[in-house]
Amino acid sequence: MPPTAKATAHGPESNPDDLLIGGALSLGLRLKPADVSAFRIYREEILRWSERMNLTALTTPAQVVQQGFLDSLVCGALVPRGAQRVLDVGSGAGFPAIPIALIRPDLQFILVEPTRKKVTFLKHVTRQLQLTHVHIRPGRLEEFLGDKTMRDTFDVALARAVAPLPESGRKVRPFLRPQGVFLAQVGSGVTAGGSARRLTCSGFENVGEAEVPPEFGKPGRRIVALRKTTTP
For an engineered disulfide with 70, which of 105, 164, 216, 223 has Cβ 3.0 to 4.6 Å away? Predict the structure, then answer.
């Protein structure tokens, strides 16, 4: 028999695969059966590992799909054409990089994560999903400032509310190539306009914002797009 919806405090909950497929379609993404299967494996691994470690605050399949996968895919839609290398800072459970990587095998991803247990999870899940274009770098971002393979080489930097926006921008800027784009996922409590204006004095120009549909997660979430300028 097909899975049935179950009641929650927020109303009927759809099958998580259906939530993913429908949400992706609303973004103009038509997922293949193999994509849906990969996202299912990823979702199940997140929930399994979360039972024994502090991996993510998302605790149900629907939350993982909406606030993890779909939230990340909104960010992925803003990756500029022609981008090749993507840096993800403080990856945690892999958001937003791994959901984007599942549908963008043409991009090379470097995920920087300082927590050893989360690094173990990221290495495990990228092996299981055969994401050979995703590479995990244990440590804090500032530890790689002297690495010539990292500095000034990334077309895109991602950060999912790992620090206040101005602080995140200052950290990722040395790793972006000229005209590289920083896509910062911020919550409803962040005054993105003021934070972005402060970053324009630190070597960025604000090139726009995108709102995350409220049905994908917490209302008020959005993505701030900032382009690296030639002068700090």
Answer: 216
